Amino acid sequence: MRLTASLRGVFAVARATALESLQRPVSVLLALACFELVALQPLVQLHAFGEPGRLSRDAGMASMLVFGLVFAVFCAGEGFARELRDGTAAAALAGPVSRPAFVLGKYLGVAAAVAAFAWCQAWAVALAGRTSEAFFETARFAGSIRDVGCGAASVLLPAAALAAGAAADVRHRRFGLWFFGSLAALCPVAAAALGFFDRNGSWLGAAAWNPGLDARLAVPLALVAALLLALAAWTTAFATRLQTGPVLALSALLLALGFFAEAARTAALPVRAAFALVPDVQSFWLADALRAGGTVPPGAAAGAALYAAFHVAAALCVAAALFENRDL
Amino acid sequence: MDSETDTAPRGGAALEAENLHKTFRDFWGRARTEAVRGVSLRAGSGEVLGILGPNGSGKSTTIKMALGLLKPTSGSVRLFGLPPSDARAKARVGYLPELSHLHPFLTPRETLLYAAGLFGMPRRTAGARAADLLKRVGLDGAAADRRVGEFSKGMARRVGLARALLNDPELVVLDEPTSGLDPVGRREVKDLVKALGGEGRTVLLSSHLLSEVQDVCTRVAVLVRGRIRAEGALPGLLETPGEGVRFDVSGLAPEKVGEARAALFALGASSVEESPRTIPLEDFFLSLLRAPEDAAQ
Fold this sequence. Notes:
Helix content of chain A: over 70%
Distance between the termini of chain B: 51 Å
Oligomer: heterodimer
Radius of gyration of chain A: 22 Å
CATH superfamily of the largest domain in chain B: P-loop containing nucleotide triphosphate hydrolases
Number of domains of chain A: 1
Shape of chain B: globular
């Protein structure tokens, strides 16, 4: 009974946090900009780097990482800081919610928002892969072709989500929530619908249905999302004690150090020990494994997932400890 | 509410604070402000205790320490005999902060459902309770589904009040409850506080509005610069022994007023003041608001 009540408290905080994160105008803008960048890029790309879809794939995942980091850090940092600044954290903690439960709820809410963001952008990367130039050969013609129909559909998806958000706003519903909900639902629907057409836009029929997406992308995209979740956890820890500005700066520093973490493995012991607390970005960036038809080794994927889970757990423990005696 | 609250100690004082001190420090740990200096308070069951004091006197800091939101520099606090961090104690407390502190993106109904989640209330119970309280504070109907961020300060205050009562608390802590409210809202809050006291709940009311405290509190503590300057039941505190007696007379015919005055002088009174009976401005204002339009004109 007590556990159920505690879980209800965690869930209430998580739900409110997710709601707040998704309906911020900046969240919608980041998701919109990232999706359009990824979707438009294959329509204007000039090189294939010797492998159809590679540039779209790499650029798409890099965009998802950069925009996602800004999204995750902002949601976690500003969300927590606002609760402290506006006193809503104090009002919540005057009730029977423990401080660790509050921190956990805040993180889970941000994690849900980050998951929604990553889900939408992952579809953008997959659709961009289909749109990219591919080698094409028939009895009469040989060369490369772009799936312009898929590209156009991808570019229009956020517009449809924006329209859904605007319609919701007119009815006094939440714009951001409807935007993200619509985009998350429309992406797989669009991918399924595109499966009935070939790259030229010709009808294939139900028997030959093929969405033409690269399923190998799922694991590296999931690992990029895992990195975003790990960084959001550390940002939550920073936000328990610092204002938004220092939190964003510290999170950016952590990310920058994360790029050097792999190189630090061969450094002296004190440096290695210090870098153990920094999430190694290279552990989550496995896009190169897809080169020339390759796949991500299951062991590497599982290791990176566990590594992310360790960072999330460690960051939440630090957050709970830092928040326990904080004056509200 | 839940079984966890049932195991909490019952009876005794709702709030006991002993020799509380609070010093705020800067980033380097240097003492910046000594907000509370040796405050001791006790709020018994069913008591309406007012904490009076000017801005910056330490009222909100004392309340926050009582609720476990601020850690005292020294001293101790017990809520229902438990530390204020104990969930069983906090489950029996309702709190209205000084500035309401509401999520601007939630509607009043969602605000109450969110708070109900924090209290671990089942969704169905919470929905019924929220509807009931929104009606009680006059925010049922369309207002219940507008976002709190669009509300005036007074309307937000009503949402805050509803939230403070959501868990049917035994101790209600109200920090400047009438701040931002119009005279009608102020009267409603005062009536509500009286009703809460009448129901046997303990109310801790912080305010710098003296008339507000005088109207509803059974006991007051006056805080000045972090210290309690006076504390006790209101009649005892306000009594001025040796400075005369005040009669409040009704039913005396106007032509007899002179005789009454002469009699008082004959009995040794050195001065007698008389003035027509008046009603408080608040009552007069409310009577105008409540009167039909044509009658008021």
